[in-house]
Amino acid sequence: MADGTRNDRTNDDVVLNELLCFVKSYFGKMPNTEIVSVIIEFYEEEEIVTAKRMIFDISDKLKVEGAPRMKCRTDGTNKRRPDCVFDMFEILDKKSVELPQFHAVNLHRLPRITPSDVDNVRMAENISELKEHVAALTHQVNEIVTDADDDEVVCCPN
What we know:
Strand content: 5-15%
Radius of gyration: 24 Å
Largest sheet: 3 strands, mixed
């Protein structure tokens, strides 16, 4: 790491790792692609690799059924890609696994994200969801109109 701080200690209830603390803090609150982008820009390769190992070790220790194994790349490709960290968080979240607490030893190793950054991302997600709902409702209305046109009602005179 850049500042020489050790951030790879764990016990059953607490994990000291800035990157995992950051991910856990924002997981589900902003898109993973945004968090991945921040991690790639902010953290050193060694920190990313350490976090990957730690989250996979946690999964192994908890004996999470169906969780993938960490694939070690000997050629050095994609070491800076933290995607598998998110994949593992998603798997653990879906399985309702109770994770240990993630804490930061060095607060300077946590990227700064302002509340407005999170709010903007949330707003964009909400707009996207609203567009999907409007499209679905439009489709349903069109089907109703089409069905009404097909079911022409003929009145018989008395």
